[in-house]
Amino acid sequence: MSSPHPEGLRARKKARTRRTIQEQALRLFAERGYDETTVEQIAEASEISPSTFFRYFPTKEDVVVQDDYDSLLMAVLASQPVDLAPIPALRATVHDAFTRIPPDEEAQILARTRLQLRHAPLRAKAVDNLISTIAMLAEGIAGRMGRDTTDPLSRTAAGAVVGAMLPAVFSWAESDGARRLAETVDEALSLLEKGLRP
């Protein structure tokens, strides 16, 4: 049997290191507090150097805000039927992608979201992340429709979906993840798809 492609092995190793850093960071934040935990402590717990930490995450805030779901979202969006309108296509994409998140990763998302709600610097960083997500989804929608990436319809659809998701995710975090994230978000996007009619 032939060995896996070396680039695949490198990518998996990088993903494991990235996940370890986030896991150790969240553990330390829970034990010591976000403000009291340093990058050096996270690096030590992850068995890496501080310089390696910064190769994966530019700042301590990024270890909370960043995730690895962009490529999944874009792949799922590309697989949606071409005749689906933008909002239904994005709703189906988000539901499919979020359903694939295993319970242990969903617990991490819950911890990261709760940190973002409690710390102003994290909220500011999260806004930057949301802007990037809207641009990414708008590009995917524009591509599906053969439109320019600056197309107002694509940007508005992406912004509306992300905007509808935010209060749903916040409510989910405030309820300690009482329901699955996919169900909570899909309920909000269902309302959006129906024109916000009950």
Automatic annotation (TrEMBL):
At the top level, the lineage of the source is Bacteria
Q: Name one Pfam family in it.
A: TetR_N
TM regions (residue ranges): none
Instruction: Kindly indicate whether the keyword Transcription regulation belongs to this entry.
Output: yes
What GO terms are given for molecular function?
A: DNA-binding transcription factor activity; transcription cis-regulatory region binding
Which residue windows are coiled coil?
none
Residue ranges: DNA binding: 38-57
The UniProt keywords, alphabetically, are: DNA-binding, Transcription, Transcription regulation
Q: Give all residue intervals belonging to the HTH tetR-type domain.
A: 15-75
Which InterPro entries does this chain map to? Homeodomain-like_sf, HTH-type_TetR-like_transc_reg, HTH_TetR, MftR_C
Record carries keyword Chaperone: no
This protein's name: TetR family transcriptional regulator
